[in-house]
Amino acid sequence: MTEWQPIETAPKDGLYDILVSEGLGVYMATWSRLGPLPNTKFGWVTNTGFQLDPTHWMPLPEPPK
């Protein structure tokens, strides 16, 4: 399994979800726009729309075979 990495090194292309760590929680999140308007800033968001301020990340593991 991959080790946790600093959030500054996380991919910010918005193409896929990654695991992020915030406090004691681990979430699946994507770097995306935080609102509907074109000038809205970007940030880490879960698939349910919960905004995060994570400190670390790692790729999702491979699914079981």
Keywords:
6 strands; mainly beta; globular
Structure commentary:
The protein has strands at 5-6, 18-22, 25-33, 42-46, 51-52, 56-58. β3 and β4 (42-46) form a beta hairpin. The chain has no helices and six strands. Helices cover 0% and strands 40% of the residues. By secondary structure, the chain is mainly beta. The mean pLDDT is 90. Strands 1-6-2-3-4-5 form a six-stranded antiparallel sheet, with no helix packed on it.
Order of helices and strands: EEEEEE
Q: Helix content range of the residues, please?
A: under 10%
Strand content: 35-45%
> How would a crystallographer describe the biggest sheet?
6 strands, antiparallel
**Number of DSSP helical runs:** 0
Average of per-residue pLDDT values: 90
Low-confidence stretches: none
User: How far do the termini sit from each other?
Assistant: 15 Å
- Kindly report the spatial arrangement of strands forming the biggest sheet: 1-6-2-3-4-5
SS class: mainly beta
Give the overall form.
globular
- Write down how many β-strands occur, each being a DSSP E stretch of 2 or more residues: 6
Gyration radius (Cα, Å) is: 12 Å
